[in-house]
Amino acid sequence: MAAQVASGIGFLGAGVILKQGVSVSGLNTAATLWASAAVGTLCGSGMEAAAAIGATAIMLANMMLRPIGAAIDARRTAQSHEAEGIRYTLEVKCLRKDEQAIRALVFNALHQPGFIVQSIAASDLPDDLVVITTVVATHMSSNIDIESSIETVITTPEVLGVKWDAEQITAVD
């Protein structure tokens, strides 16, 4: 029975993994779904103590590994070799309960021809808030392009604040 649960959840997990250019998202969600199904299987098998340990491990891994992933993303962005253009950093503030929907909204708004989404990271703030930071590179020379792209983000009621910044980038050998 457990094998059937694992394979079924595998299909669900595969559905949340998205690849857009060089960006891959949804791996953490897929792994969490699979691990949660394992905890459910343990509970169904009468192994409540093992299920409690597994649930605790899942929660700790998700909470503790997020800052490490953000640091890796920041380091990778800083070390990347860019062509000449503009790098935009977009920060969107929302409630933690709206994070997934807002992250998808931001990604969809910026994943357009002419823009290269380099990273998306979320940082927890006090008062149950999250700031989603997205770094986008483009060869376009007008801020009007980024403003029109994030118009839907800005007007979404769940978005509590938006800040963006532009930086000129040059080719690095």
UniProtKB/TrEMBL annotation:
Membrane-protein topology: Multi-pass membrane protein
Source organism, top-level taxon: Bacteria
Domain MgtC/SapB/SrpB/YhiD N-terminal: from-to ranges: 1-68
Keyword Transmembrane attributed: yes
Keywords: Cell membrane, Membrane, Transmembrane, Transmembrane helix
Localization annotation: Cell membrane
Domain MgtC-like C-terminal: 88-164
Keyword tRNA-binding: no
Annotated family: Belongs to the MgtC/SapB family.
Name of this protein: Truncated magnesium transport protein
